[in-house]
Q: What sequence folds into this?
């Protein structure tokens, strides 16, 4: 555990990774930001802006970008990981040989690995040394990068198995506009952050079909029920899902106009094909990939998740959005008590 936290390496220069790097640099920390795209590296170092993923937001001069993973983590007191979930394993695999001793990792990626249905910390455990396990943390909660990057108040949850380490990094991250809550429920915090993206796709479909606010509120509520059921089956604390990484992120992503996943859902509801939508997007809508992994987890743990099932059918089985909604509404009558 580092005595003090003065230097951060941030891996992933998308909007969220760049916004987090900016925040850390503005606290006076030395920050190196890894970007895959060479034009992004050059722009950050010469113009102090990320015109590809966070256009128009000036970046501090003590934030430097690099295309070298080794350079990013060298001499750091902590690493913040913010690459898309489908790239996490390959990036960690490249990085692992250069980490000679345990190094605190904060994962800010909200997703589940599509091919294995593993959470991001499980992917990290696969690729990094066993000695790293107690140094792994996750950061999640309601957070649009565009708002956070310009200093609008944001509150998130930081979870890890080592409470003392979590408290130390909690303090390192917090500012008057960024409040961080500590937790130990690593599974629950990750599930909430990942599954809300799939529910946001479904909420977007509701809005794209113009089915109204009643329907969207019902979708969010029953979506939360599904998330809680799966979380409980996987060993998470159900109370976690009533917090920032659960209800907080779910409501934001299902209703916020800045949500990429919600926007994809709206376009699906309006009749556009998924491949057409994705072809025109530069940023990643994590919910599209997570839908597959979520259905795998539901089946693996024998948990009923009808919304996940229907949005998966819309995405990958060419099921019509209206038929999916009808099938959800016409399911057998159930009791709400106990989240059945």
A:
């Amino acid at each position: 555990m580092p005595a003090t936290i003065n230097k951060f390496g941030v891996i992933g220069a998308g909007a969220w990774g760049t916004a987090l790097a900016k925040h850390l640099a503005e606290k006076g920390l030395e920050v190196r930001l890894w970007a895959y795209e060479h034009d992004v590296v050059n722009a950050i170092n010469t113009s102090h802006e990320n015109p590809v993923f966070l256009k128009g937001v000036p970046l501090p001069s003590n934030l430097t970008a690099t295309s070298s993973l080794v350079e990013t983590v060298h001499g750091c007191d902590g690493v913040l990981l913010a690459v898309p979930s489908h790239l996490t394993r390959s990036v960690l695999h490249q990085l692992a040989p250069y980490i000679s001793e345990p190094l605190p990792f904060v994962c800010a990626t909200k997703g589940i690995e599509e091919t294995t249905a593993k959470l991001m910390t499980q992917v990290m455990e696969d690729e990094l040394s066993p000695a790293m396990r107690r140094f792994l943390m996750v950061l999640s909660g309601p957070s649009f990068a565009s708002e956070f990057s310009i200093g609008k108040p944001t509150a998130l949850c930081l979870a890890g198995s080592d409470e003392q380490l979590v408290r130390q990094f909690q303090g390192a991250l917090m500012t008057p506009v960024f409040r961080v809550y500590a937790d130990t429920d690593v599974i629950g915090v990750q599930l909430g952050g990942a599954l809300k993206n799939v529910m946001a796709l479904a909420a977007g479909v509701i809005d794209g079909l113009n089915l109204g606010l009643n329907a969207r509120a019902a979708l969010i509520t029953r979506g939360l029920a599904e998330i809680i059921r799966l979380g409980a089956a996987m060993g998470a604390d159900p109370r976690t899902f009533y917090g920032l990484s659960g209800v907080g992120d779910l409501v934001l992503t299902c209703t916020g106009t800045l949500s990429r996943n919600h926007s994809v859902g709206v376009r699906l509801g309006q009749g556009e094909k998924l491949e057409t939508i994705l072809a025109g997007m530069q940023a990643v809508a994590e919910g599209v990939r997570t839908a597959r992994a979520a259905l795998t987890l539901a089946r693996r743990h024998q948990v009923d998740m009808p919304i996940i099932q229907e949005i998966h059918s819309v995405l990958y089985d060419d099921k019509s959005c209206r038929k999916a909604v009808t099938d959800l509404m016409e399911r057998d009558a159930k009791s709400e008590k106990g989240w059945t």
Observations:
- The first strand starts at residue 7 and ends at 11.
- Residues 194-329 form a domain with the N-(1-d-carboxylethyl)-l-norvaline Dehydrogenase; domain 2 fold (CATH 1.10.1040.10).
- The longest helix spans residues 186-208.
- The chain has a mean pLDDT of 96.
